[in-house]
Structures are given as C-alpha cells and as structure tokens.
Amino acid sequence: MSGFAKHRKSGRIIADFTGFEAELLRSLAGQLVELLHNETAEPRDDRDPLEAMLDFSGPTSEPEDPVLARLFPTAYPDDDEAAAEFRRFTEGALRDGKSRAAETIIDSLEEAGLPPELTEDGLHFDVELDEPEAMTWMRSFTDIRLALATRLGIEEGDEEYWASLPDEDPTLQAHDIYEWVGYLQETLVEALQR
How many C-beta atoms lie closer than 10 Å to residue 193's C-beta? Predict the structure, then answer.
C-alpha cells in the first residue's frame, strides 16, 4: 500500500490495495456501521422521508458505549437540559451520516474488486475516488481512528508506552492498525490538496 495519490490527468484520487488491506478496511468500516446501528438512536429506513425529517425523538442522554460517547460528545457539558435537547435534535442524523460514510468505504472497495468473501491470495486492485467520495472516506477514517483510540486507550504523548510493547502483543498489533488508518488518512488529505 503506497497510500492515496491524485491522478494527474483524471484528477481522481487513487490507491492500490491488497486483498488483505481492503478486507481489513471493510471490516473496520463494517464494525463501525454495526456499532452505530445497534443503538436506539439509529434512524429507521422504513419511514416516510418527511416524517423522518420532522422526527426529533432522538436520545437525550450520552451513549453508554465509550466509543459512541467519543463520537457524539456532549455539546453543553455545563448545561444538562441544553445538552439533552441538542442531542435529541442532532444525534440521529449524525449517526446516520457516519454510518453512510462507513458504508461508502465498503461500497467503494467492493465496486473496485473486493469480493464478498476474500479467498484469493495476492489480490491487488485500485480504488478510484472522486473528490466527494474522498472527503467521505476522510471523515470515516476520523471516526474509525477515534473508535480504535478509545478502545485501545490511546492518548496523546503515549508513544513510549506503545514502543515498549513486545511485537507479539495483540494490542500493539491493533495500535499498528490505528497507525495504518492514520497513514491512509494523511495521504488522502495530501492527495486532496494537490
């Protein structure tokens, strides 16, 4: 994986993925979608669009899951009533947007050639994104990294701790995935700026 780059002629953002890398990214995005859908705040798809737009019956309290609490922080920490009202009016739509962004990653990978079940060794393919798709991927990378950082307890300035772990430590391997998603996000930002 060499990261994302902008194609000189087409202007599209392109990255080459191995099957393993693409499957890992699909899994991370899928886990995020699952987490977002396993809460009562998730909007229902079976409602009339106008009804859904006018529905302000979202949650009023902070999510119990630490990842969701990090993805949807309290807007007014010193005013419980204002925080509850803000959450009620916004969290459902925010969850829906984050879920759609993660699903965009999954769809893009599958459209580019990732099979429903990876069985082939040595699979390589290019993912090509237009600018709006690339922006959606970038937002979802932020959500995935926040989720990983929360689950792993990653904090600013703790590089020495992670460097001290033995190579076979599974948390170090998960940290490597966190760093890899950060690398993808960084190269995507650079490609978008060219």
Answer: 7
Question: pLDDT of 35-63, one tens digit each?
Answer: 998 864 444 456 555 555 555 566 778 89
What is the rounded distance in angstroms from the CA atom of residue 102 to the CA atom of residue 2?
22
CB atoms within 10 A of CB 56: 10
Judge if pTM exceeds 0.90: no
Q: What is the pLDDT of residue 194?
A: 85
Answer whether 113's CB lies under 8 Å from 37's CB. no
Question: CA–CA separation, 94 vs 86, rounded Å?
Answer: 12
Domain count, the chain: 1
Q: What does the DSSP assignment read for 132-184?
A: HHHHHHHHHHHHHHHHHHHHHT--TT-HHHHHHS-TT-HHHHHHHHHHHHHHH
> Does residue 52 lie within any of the structural domains?
no
The 3-class secondary structure across 13-38, one letter per residue, is EEEEEEHHHHHHHHHHHHHHHHHHHC
Domain range spanning residue 31? 5-40+99-193
Q: How far apart are CA 98 and CA 90, in angstroms?
A: 12
Is 138 a member of any domain? yes
Contact 14, 108 (CB under 8 A): no
Residue 107 lies in a domain: yes
